[in-house]
Amino acid sequence: MKRLLAALLFTFVAAAQAAHPGPATLDEALAQGKREQKPVMVDFQAVWCYSCYFMASHVLNGKEWNDLNTKVVFYEADADKPADKAWMQKLNVHFLPTYVLIGPDGEELGRILAERPRATFYTEVAGILSGDARLSKQKADAAKGSMAAVADVLDTYQLRYQGTEGMAWFDSLPAMVRNVSDKDKRVALAKQRLLLLQAKDKKDDQGIVDAAGRVLAGNIGCDRPYVLDDLIEASAKQQADERRRLLAPQEAPYKQYLDTQVFTASPACADQRSAVLTAADLDAALGDHDGEQAVLRKAIDLSREKLHGDLRSDRNLADNLRVYLVRAKAGEELDTLEKQLIAAYPEDYVYNYRYGRRLVENGKPAEGLPYLDAAAKKAYGANRITVASFQVKALRALHRDDEARQRVAETVAAEGKAFPEQTKKLQESLTATAG
């Protein structure tokens, strides 16, 4: 009897879902939001996005998620599909995942970048849905003299990757407001973050070093790995002694960050991969090979401990383990894991592609090509071009140039119109020097 009731319930739910499918495009979602007077929540993600794995497994489910979906029109945007990629450019989305909430009137209500712990995410979403995060409201409050609102406006521009626009707005404030706001710690930090964005846009290494150093001196929470990574990368051309003097002061605060917010039973920061890799990069930049390997092995051991041998139990953690092994140059362990990941996640192209690509890059084109061919059968959009580029590299290394040309022609015919820049590079790979 219970089985019969369960079957009937499943049939009813399936029929209801079929009768009311979700929006097929973001334009449809926006139209539905306007019609129903609901905000639209856009989840910009991709099948290769490890942070998206975390959100899918740990956050976008359960009662809170079900309740949220009654309040919004939800649309999952795929970064590898042409129409969704165009919306990423229109909304200036640079980071996956990014969650953008848009009101029925078309105004952006706010956005969330990167993965979040469950409680943090739903608290932030509730704040955005209240309307207080709208840029127009923040600016109106700032005009009344609210320093908190000035900081909110600058933070919103930072989330939108609009450093120049944000600083232009700040410079438009009355001198009296600007002078007072400079004494506010939140405003001062928000300004430095916008200056960092501007320097990155200009590829100004010294500007990045200066701004990143000032930002790192502030309380930036879970963003610390990203800013430190900017500092490490921008200082790469400096003399070794000068670079050590610049980076050495970051060791102690970053270790404290790892110990208190990452390597704990309940991490406050969800993006453990960036935290670990930045720690390894800092050790490498300071010439501490033992420290670099130690932090990677700690992350590897903790990941294995939490997975309990089940790679499907947490895809984010499983993929983090793969990357830690790559970074540690643990070849044999990595070979074993990547084959296990292919078996554990056969539904998409990602792990066949990554393993095949690594084999080709390591001078084993004959071994890598079958994995790339398997990946190509599941690839689509922009990722189809990515897979094809390594198929071509493998085929040319094997002197199978006719097959390489055929692969390029097929891919260009299917995806060339939507992704002209990528397909141009793919075509150019036919005449590049074979690796």
Protein model, in words:
Keywords: Signal. Residues 1-18 form the signal peptide. Pfam families: Thioredoxin_7 (PF13899). Residues 1-130 form the Thioredoxin domain. Helix 12 runs antiparallel to helix 13 (224-234). The chain has a 4-stranded mixed beta sheet, sandwiched between helices. Helix content is 67%, strand content 5%. The N and C termini lie far apart (65 Å). Among the domains are: 24-133, Glutaredoxin; 346-435, Serine Threonine Protein Phosphatase 5, Tetratricopeptide repeat, CATH 1.25.40. It has 435 residues and is mainly α.
> How many beta-strand runs?
4
The radius of gyration is 24 Å
Q: How helix-rich are the residues, as a percent range?
A: 55-70%
In terms of structural class, how would the helical and strand content be classed?
Answer: mainly alpha
**CATH level-two architecture of the domain at 24-133:** 3-Layer(aba) Sandwich
CATH C-level label of the domain at 24-133:
Alpha Beta
Q: What ranges have pLDDT less than 50 throughout 5 or more consecutive residues?
A: 1-19
Output the CATH topology of the domain at 24-133: Glutaredoxin
Query: Largest sheet, if any?
Result: 4 strands, mixed
